[in-house]
Amino acid sequence: MKKAFGFVAVVLSFCMALSACMGGKGGSADSSLAAFSDSAASFPSSDSDSSEDSLSAGPAGSDNEETGDSVSVGAEKKILILESGETASGLSAVLQTEGFMAETVLLGDTALPETPESLYDLYDQVILNDVFLEELPEGFGEILYSYVYDFGGGLLTAGDNSDVPMTEIYDGLGPENAALKELLPVEAAPVQSSLGLILLVDLSGSMSFRVELVKQAAQSCLNALSGRDRMGIMTFSLDSELLCPLTGVAESESINKAIEEMEAQGGGTIFSAGITRAGELLEAETDIYKRHILLITDGAPGEPQEEYFAATENNYRQKGITMSVLLLAQDAGDSVMEQLAEAGGGTIYADEQSDYIAMRMNEELNRPELREYGGEPFRPLISDPDSPLLEGVEYTTDERGRCFMTPELRGFCGAAAKSDAEVILSWEFGAPLYVRRALGKGVVGSFLFDLYGGGSAQFLTGAGGIQFVCNAVLDLLPGSSQG
């Protein structure tokens, strides 16, 4: 399997498979993506004074297009787009339409400049768009690094739909790729969506001698969560009691206090009320992506089966709230509890070994079903609407004052922004979508979604999408007002 340079750039095109809206690298003839049939260009000589790709007008929004005056950095600078494959994606034509001097070179068709000086003499910005690592000439990573750091060239990266985990490829790169790793504003990281978890703990009479085991299980759950997650604890016997509301894991002191305060309540076992209430609490939370209940019990509820099954299925089917079962019982073959976990879209774990429980809770709370982005459309969250990168870009503001771009995306690559990088766009549940980073004399930007019309089809044809891409390109050019 080829290792791709993805949107995360040189080393990070290890995106999860995205939902393809347009069936490959191409768009409709009446959209900006129509230009994606554009053919590849060849390198000009360094003393060339003109190019068939050059345009006199600046990027969209220029006030002087009719006069042909140089009104923007973009109209004066040359952009090289490097791509893999047999045909060019047409990104250069899209940028040309918006007033940029851009051309595409397919790797393997033309020799690349062999020094950062010669690269900078020819081009003011390089875009790595869907580039496979093994197709880059040896040492080109070092050339790119010096091109940016020492000479002030701009670098923009964009990726493909590879299903190879980004962390697997990134972490597997050898010392010879150190320059590529250092160059990027992002580093490989699995997509970790925010999880809201309620522990629904049976403290009826039959659980009285298992309370310490319950506490160990609860502590194991807390240890398995990340800083973006929230956890609450609800106990029940005949009635339910909220021992700890959904609380950020960073505030673990209050969660630990609730764990220590758990004690057997005695009485019978009624599941349905607790399951329903836990679902209501999770449904009310707006800052979490996935919602999950973990029922900790020894089984044997004292109510009709159809009642707690109905509550579980309502949470799952109507609210998307999943539920798993940790069965603390000597008889692990409880088929009813197994069916209950299945009805909640979850898993059953059955054991009374504390070591087993700690391992299984970590496994449970990091299941892909609870962590991975599900492929549904979403709108990028804007970090700062006053940023020059958002100039001319339409957005809306929600009731909490958060700003979202108008066009939607349907996928992204997993990564984390480096500590000295600036996140411009993000998924509202935490993952970065566009990140920029000043490095020496230059600036590097990384899109973490494709730019050829797969998961980004609506983004690239919707209001503001192309404008943002143009703003990002302009920002990275030497001498730009943003950079």
Automatic annotation (TrEMBL):
- Name the InterPro entries for this protein: VWF_A, vWFA_dom_sf
Which intervals hold domain VWFA? Answer: 196-365
Q: Where is this region: Disordered?
A: 39-70
What PROSITE patterns does this protein map onto? PROKAR_LIPOPROTEIN, VWFA
The signal peptide here is 1-22
Keyword Cell inner membrane part of the UniProt annotation: no
- Segments of skewed composition (Low complexity): 39-57
Keyword Ligase among UniProt keywords: no
Please name one Pfam family that this protein belongs to.
Answer: VWA_2
Supply the alphabetized keyword list: Signal
Would you say which domain of life the source belongs to?
Bacteria
Query: What PANTHER family does the record tag this protein with?
Result: BLL2462 PROTEIN (PTHR37947)
UniProt name for this protein? VWA domain-containing protein
